[in-house]
């Protein structure tokens, strides 16, 4: 049986199986089934409230599954079948799997009381067990990569939104994740810096084999970076195809309506 980190594993890196998510009486996701292969970059598009961000939060275990299962490289993330029953995975196993997943949020989520360097090195040192020297060296490489090498000693409040998001990307990459979740990473940024941040992510996509699950309203970015684009509406996948097909010849009327509105507004 392949190990969880085996690049030759035959399992999808992410698999949603009969997933449901309810918030009170509201059903956000219903009978959701899809998978993401190793190294694949999949972008979720669709109107606000269609369940896209909830999908990322479920993979990051920031939300509780209402029903169904999520597997990371064949391993159950939150629930598993034991003796014919749906049972929770131990917190120890869940934490172990979660170290392989990084997420970049809309609102940066940096620790305001820590410097940029501390924000980036905290988890590699205390979660992955890296030495301070090793974590610091890697952090400096990443700050160079995302274009803010001179901000190591600054605090988040001293940075612009675009700089904070670059640091947040570096922080996620510092954990050497197999999976990178991107949740509307430009939505809180001033328009003039959106392109710069998206270019950083394009570089990450081109120069790493990290699997990406992306939620964005930046359609040109989705078209450029994705191997596959999935259109969501009402908590369900209404269409899934390669970017060229989705953006030039979508088969679903709801996809056509959505893209027409979004591209017209942009």
Automatic annotation (TrEMBL):
Keywords: Amino-acid transport, ATP-binding, Cell membrane, Membrane, Nucleotide-binding, Transport. Pfam families: ABC_tran. GO terms for molecular function: ATP binding. It comes from the Bacteria. Residues 14-259 form the ABC transporter domain. Gene3D superfamilies: P-loop containing nucleotide triphosphate hydrolases. It is a peripheral membrane protein. It is found in: Cell membrane. Belongs to the ABC transporter superfamily. This is Ectoine/hydroxyectoine ABC transporter ATP-binding protein EhuA. It comes from Yaniella flava. The gene is ehuA.
């Amino acid at each position: 049986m392949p190990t969880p980190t085996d690049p030759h594993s035959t399992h999808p890196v992410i698999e949603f199986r009969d997933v449901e998510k309810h918030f009170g009486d509201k059903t956000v996701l219903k009978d959701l089934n899809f998978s993401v292969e190793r190294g694949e970059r999949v972008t979720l598009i669709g109107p606000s409230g269609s369940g896209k961000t909830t999908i990322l939060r479920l993979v990051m275990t920031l939300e509780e599954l209402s029903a169904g299962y999520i597997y990371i490289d064949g391993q159950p993330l939150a629930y598993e079948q034991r003796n014919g029953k749906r049972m929770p995975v131990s917190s120890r196993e869940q934490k172990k799997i979660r170290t392989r997943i990084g997420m970049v949020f809309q609102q940066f989520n940096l620790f305001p009381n820590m410097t940029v360097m501390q924000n980036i090195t905290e988890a590699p040192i205390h979660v992955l067990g890296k030495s301070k020297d090793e974590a610091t060296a890697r952090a400096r490489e990443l700050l160079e990569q995302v274009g803010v090498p001179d901000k190591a000693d600054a605090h988040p409040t001293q940075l612009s939104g675009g700089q904070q998001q670059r640091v947040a990307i570096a922080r996620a990459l510092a954990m050497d994740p197999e999976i990178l979740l991107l949740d509307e990473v430009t939505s809180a940024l001033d328009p003039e810096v959106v392109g710069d941040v998206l270019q950083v992510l394009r570089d990450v996509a081109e120069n790493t084999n990290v699997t990406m699950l992306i939620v964005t309203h930046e359609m040109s970015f989705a078209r450029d970076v994705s191997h596959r684009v999935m259109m969501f509406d009402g908590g369900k996948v209404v269409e899934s195809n390669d970017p060229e097909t989705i953006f030039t010849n979508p088969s679903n009327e709801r996809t056509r309506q959505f893209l027409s509105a979004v591209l017209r507004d942009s």
